[in-house]
Fold this sequence. Notes:
Blueprint: H1 2-5, H2 9-93, E1 95-96, H3 98-113, H4 120-127, E2 131-132
Parallel strand pairs: 1-2
Helix pairs in contact: 2-3, 2-4, 3-4
Amino acid sequence: MEYINNLTISELIAILIFVESVVKVISLYFNKLYNYKRNEEKETEKIKKLDKKLQDLEEKVENNENENELIIEVLKIQCRFYIVDSCLNQIHQGHIKSEKLQSIKDLYKVYKMLGGNSYVSDLVKRLDELEIE
């Protein structure tokens, strides 16, 4: 207590300024810590939202892949139907126009690219044995 009584006013002011500075530094530290935690929570929430969006996109991509597979399967069936029908008609007639033959062969290539494989190959080969008009 005597020590405080022996201090001059300028020394007391210096001590008070020092204490005020320490309090400000501590206050700034806790404010920054609080803001950091708040920002961290906000960023975590943003990440969760982005993760949800990513999951939704993944589901959409998977659904599109399934739809694409279905569309490809339908295209294969349509190609196979047209090729078989055309081949059987032409074989029955015993002749084929060169344009029709080329059209069937072009469609057959597409059918194979779509993953088609069946007795269709034999039918298309039989067209080469027909008389070409």
